[in-house]
Structures
1.
Amino acid sequence: MGPRRPLERFLRALRQIVGAPDYARYLEHHAACHPHEPPLSPREHYAEFVRRRFGGGVTRCC
Amino acid sequence: MLARKMRRLLSSVLWIAVAALGAAGFAVLALSRGENVSAAWILAAGVASYVIAYRFYARFLALRVFALDDRRATPAERFNNGRDFVPTNKWVLYGHHFAAIAGAGPLIGPMLAAQFGFLPGTLWLIAGVVVGGAVQDFTILFASMRRDGKSLGQMAKEEINSVAGLAAMVAILAIMVILLAVLALVVVNALKASPWGLFIIACTIPIALLMGWWMRAVRPGRVLEASAIGIALLLGALVAGRWVSLDPTWSRWFTWSGTGLSWAMIVYGFFASVLPVWLLLSPRDYLSTFLKIGTVLTLAVAIVLTLPPIRMPALTQFTDGTGPVFAGKVFPFAFITIACGAISGFHALVASGTTPKMVTRESETRLLGYGGMLMESFVGLMAVIAAATLQPGVYFAMNVPAGVLGTTGESAARAIARWGFTLQPGQMEALARQMGEATLLSRTGGAPSLAVGMATILGGVVRGSGLALWYHFAIMFEALFILTTVDAGTRVGRFMLQELGGHVWKPFGRTSWYPSILAASALIVAGWGYFLYQGVVDPLGGINSLWPLFGIANQLLAAVALCVGTTVLVKLGRQRYAWTTIVPLVWLAAVTLTAGWQKVFASDPRLGFLSHARLVAGGPGSANAARLIFNDRLDAVLALAFMAVVLVVIAASAREWWLVLSKRKAAEVHEAPFVRSAYAEGD
């Protein structure tokens, strides 16, 4: 169940296309799967995201 | 009943019409001699072929060859962790996948191959993608998705053997070094003596740092916001660049020589590999992704709106191997020069990277793998169109090195007249003024001539918008892509080197240990930096030796990927469909081995590394001559090593196929076990 408003939906899709983090989506996932643990702050979430996505080097074609 | 019959009839009529349109496109292109044809025919031939291939061949691959099964849960569904494993809408993922596979390659290769005329490039882009490139991407995406997103190297090791796995890894590392060198050379040639262009690219560094700081400290995780700021600043720098180029003091500051720029690139690459990713690499990646998607869409719209006339002949006399842009006959060199866009081994790394972890349903891999590559081929066709809209005289004046053309408009016009093309007196000077550059003569590497073509097309849509602005926009777009590849590639290379080095000496393998980071980064940068620098000072123009090496290396990686794909099919018991990957594999092996052999042993010193070394050795001896001879031999060794790797991987794979098919060995497939998907319908 994603966001309802068209603009929000567009931005969410855009984030996925360019591979950007989505904190709101993370909160949804966290609430659904790990309801008893406190979620990461936006800052921690971003640091974790960057480490995962770019830390091992990104594969971009020529 | 009747309605269904009608629908079937209608569908048949429709597909016959599409086929007829494509056939008409090919016929017009092939039969045109001397008269101007419209770019619409290239588009018609291409798009009709893509649509038919997607509807029929990709469907055959999906249903019969891979037997995609939507009842089987994908890794995204099974491991859904809200991070890298996320079931993603297929169109969103298509955009994501395309942004990861497309880059400067499909734009530069077709531009260089246009020395043969527009026809060889067009035909290879279309036929190559349908039978080769899209099949490779689809196969690897399928195989990786069935293996929880494993990488190409891991699959080569598991499915074939550890020798093939090691060969794949060494191949990837070698390709990385050559790729980075040749792409950096393209940027150096585009920014050399161009204060406007260099100013914009220099600005991208502080802009990226600002974005990095914004996303980490000011508004954590707000990537879209930071990217909007970054793009606004970048466009500001684009406009301000004109002022820089006109101001005598500032323009002197930003006018650099080729060697100066190559040192700057080397230093930049080192820092990009060592600095934290959030600071430089990730903001640049976002910036270039937005620019990439935006520009590709804009260019496609502009080409469809303007349908520019084609001025390049279908075939030139240079198919015989005497071409001044790079040496070698149309076979095999057209197929080496155009790798990305037709078939690109590099995609196998992407198709076994983030994309397989985000697929929701198995059947969607047809759109992502096959369809994504068709789009990249379309980008290649746009580059062919941009090249073909240039007057041939202008094309050669821009892409042939100064060693052949001389350094003045007159000497260039004389050389070009000898080839049967015309260049009016003062034409290049007028064009350079229009584009806001000091000179456009011998601006080799393909990027400047692509920028002129793009500026002409885009400037034709928005009247009075200024060609110089569009020219530098195009340069910015290409240089930004390439620098992002240099950042990311140096870093990936560093990790691979650390992993390989870790086998020899354990501490070197610790990817976060600073001495190891510095040493591995320095080694990778030194590797590509060496080839870059030699390319810049090469009297034959650098592109002549480096681009074919890059093409051979890329096609070699594609051959490795197709070997993995064939092995997977054989082990799945689908050997009667193994021709789908074997046919492109045989073609690639023929192309890379022929090209490699000719690059090493051909008697023409422009083509063969060894005969060039002999030619230099016969001349007056000097330190310069010794360096040239060493480089020729180094290039020859590299080409031979690439060929050896292809042969090793093919031999190892063929042995595995024979063992499995002759039942000497059990077909052990390393797929993840079947888990029923919750998305499955109807049961």
2.
Amino acid sequence: MSVLVDKHTRVIVQGLTGSAGCFHARQCVAYGTLIVAGVTPGRGGELVDAVRPDGQAVGIPVYDTMSEAVTTTGADVSVIFVPAPGAADAILEAVDAKCRLVVCITEGVPVLDMVKVKRALVGSSTILIGPNCPGIITPGECKIGIMPGQIHLPGRIGVVSRSGTLTYEAVGQLTALGMGQSTCIGIGGDPVAGMDHVTALRLLNDDPNTDAILMIGEIGGNAEEKAAAFIRDHVKKPVAAFIAGVTAPSGKRMGHAGAIVSGGTGSAKDKIAALEAAGIKVAPTPADMATTLRSLMQARTQLAVGARPSTTEKPVNA
Amino acid sequence: MKLHEYQAKQIFARYNVSVPKGIHCHTAEAAQIAAEQIIAETSNPVVVVKAQIHAGGRGLGGGVKVIPGGPRQVFQVAEKMLGMQLITHQTGPEGQTVRRLYIEQGLAIKKELYLGLVIDREVGRIAVMASTEGGMNIEDVARLHPEKILTESIDPLIGMTAYEARKIAYKLRVGEGCPSPRTTTQRFVDLLQRVTVLFEREDCSLCEINPLVVTDMGNVLALDAKLDLDDNASRRHPEWGDLVDRTEEDPAELEARNAGLSYVSLDGDIGCLVNGAGLAMATMDIIKHYGGTPANFLDVGGGASREAVTKAFSMILSSSKVKGIFVNIFGGIMRCDVIAEGIIQATHQLDLKVPLVVRLAGTNVEKGQALLRESGLRIETANDMGEGARKIVAAIRSTAA
């Protein structure tokens, strides 16, 4: 098993006929993801071609509405590539169609649209990831999003991150050290979003096939502080972290809508202090994310077998 | 997107949120005429001259002056204020040039309150914050007297209810000491509800009224007004185009935004070109870790074109403060060969006179490296971002020595 998605997960792409939706849906199919339908209002009845890893060509049927797509295919996961002005509506449509998991890749969704979406999710069992996120991947089984599949390696490390390329960097480092991943979740960089660090950590902590967790945060908000408290109280698995933005000036939005230090809160310094106070090892630089987690795991193993700590690090060939 | 006080007050007036009489102007002559008009209308000889810049803390920096001496004195003060570099805790050490003024009626103030509306990220709702400590820096109040800030979280389906507004009004004793406490309390409740509607309809990300004043007569007015608008909502607000003040923005940041790049100017000397916001921040951090200082934050985005990369690299090359450049790319959708082509293209127009370190990883990395090798440019390559950061910091030190 893994977290939320595996090789049996059946997925609908909202916005399949757009250029981003079409490009990434094909990449996902080529990775092995079961994309069984697309939704674009007004384009129902069309087929979008794609090629599976075994070379077999498939035609993904397009429907006008989510309710039709879900009823016809029985899929319960949706991924959204709909442009920002219609993204909130697309999320609500997926929630209404009773999707179990909705992954919204779209960047630039107005924050007050997300305030309404969050309100609509109260009392619903749908889990929302994003918006403005790279998606979720269980390596070797299911890729739902825009991350490059080939850098991943199946394994037992869980990754949760607010950033896209910084996650790829972390995964690249893990893979180079032979540390495969169970599931990697990109929760996105918007101030009001679906899943937060704590929810992702809870899922990875409960997953029997995840041995250790790498958490990547950034400036803005207090999600990492809350995550630190949760890890201290509930997580027994080794957790390493990295927080981006130690050098970010106050009051400036650093790319992501949510990445801003404002009103004296959200600084990287405070987040790192909270994590360290909770006993979580924080990587000193973004180049040390995987090695930090590895040294933590090695230390735990040695403690477990009662061996003396090793004084020599194995050479790293990253 | 930030608005000037006078622009925010124009929006307030549309929603029947009371503001003092005021006139916006660009010259000392116009300021004098504005003062004459306001004094005639209000029969009060006192007016206030307020510098209009996109930063708070103007009063302490000398950007807000109460003028009791009439229009002639307003002219003199306005003449001094226009063109000055106003330095506040929000502008940075170089300050901001004052190009616009707002001339406003003086008021007999009984009390100053604070009102702020923000997006509470934790619960995903609009939070309304109010305090009796108006006029102060609210961040200081939050730190020193958190109990003095009242907060109500607004249900987006219902909006701010009258009872929520009343709860704040009575806790803050808004009506106390006024000619008709009930009338004043009701005015405050109306204002709170109107501001909340405004916040939602105008797609604000921040609304701050500091101070919100109660006058001797028991009127409730927004004496200051700060509105930030959510850039993500600009598509449904074509009218925002008229509200942009380009003179208030960093020219490089504006140029980058027009090219679809995310850019922030910083104080250092190492130019950075990175794909992705998180990696761009992390690149700044690792440069600092190895003793250098980043000149900018630059995210070319997930799937930038060769033209966008060329533009980004040209911006870094043409900056006089840049003593070295670090390109850090983890290609996913972004292909390393596109990055290489953009770099080479940019150096055709502008010479590369400073050290350049390039770290490429991910999609089409061999192709990208081959292009750079064959270009004949003096480029140092790095296999990972740690090595890249160390190399660019060392290269700058050796050129400085």
